[in-house]
Amino acid sequence: MKGRRVLTIDILTIFPEMFPAVLNASILKRAQERRKVRIRVHDLRDFTYDKHRKVDDRPFGGGPGMVMMPGPIFWAVKKIKGRRKVRVLMTCAGGKKLDQGRAKRLAREKNILIICGHYEGVDERVRQKLVDMSVSIGDYVLTGGELPALVLVDAIVRLVPGVLGKEESLIDESFEKGKLEYPHYTRPADFQGLKVPHVLLSGHHGKIQKWRQRQAESRTRRHRPDLI
């Protein structure tokens, strides 16, 4: 359809085999089939310039582990971006923490390129010259940036207009309006003596809405008071 915005997400990684199972399932798969988003995974080793396809080296100044070299990443980003205006992100423990607000803003982008960090880290010149924003998914360390990249993609794509079957699904989610989501129930109404709250069976939409608001506030105060 002419004029339709399609979000393009490119992922640069040394472990491309980690992505297909997640990207080709559930909502992410449907989003690509409906042409709401285009997701492409690139092997960083395809942009190396030696016969060993080397992407890392020992750190200057000494220390444990290896550091991802700048050369292959610079070349890869240049080739992937081409003439497009692209928002370049890098997954790393020292980045800005991913939250719902940041995911919403990224969902409005047209082109995103995610660089997956690995080993002891990435040469700092990559961050200085190529990266618009470093992103962390929490205050802990993982073996690489591939899992955070998948989390980032999922958080962004589901917010792209038309991806979810019902847009109202986004309205009362956790972290919307500064609260966690209210509890949900489905059939049966009585499961092993655990009963669904009577108000949800009443059919009174006004009372149900008030109950859900109270539950969301109570759950937020109990589990995430920092959101209040």
Q: What's the topology here?
A:
Blueprint (H helix, E strand, L loop, with lengths): L6 E7 L6 H4 L2 H8 L3 E7 L12 E2 L9 E2 L1 H12 L5 E11 L2 H8 L3 E6 L4 E2 L1 H6 L3 E4 L9 H12 L32 E2 L2 E2 L9 H19 L5
Parallel strand pairs: 1-2, 1-6, 4-7, 5-6, 5-8
Antiparallel strand pairs: 3-4, 9-10
Helix pairs in contact: 4-6
What this model shows, in words?
The chain folds into two domains: 7-157, SPOUT methyltransferase, trefoil knot domain (Alpha/beta knot, 3-Layer(aba) Sandwich); 171-227, Trp Operon Repressor, Chain A, CATH 1.10.1270.20. Helix 4 links the parallel strand 5 (87-97) and strand 6. The chain has helices spanning 20-23, 26-33, 70-81, 100-107, 124-129, 146-157, 205-223, and strands at 7-13, 37-43, 56-57, 67-68, 87-97, 111-116, 121-122, 133-136, 190-191, 194-195. The longest helix has 19 residues, at 205-223. It has a five-stranded parallel β-sheet with strand order 2-1-6-5-8, sandwiched between helices. Strands 3-4-7 form a three-stranded mixed β-sheet. The chain contains seven helices and ten strands. Helix 4 (100-107) packs across helix 6. With 228 residues, the protein is α/β, with parallel strands linked by helices. Helix content is 30%, strand content 20%.
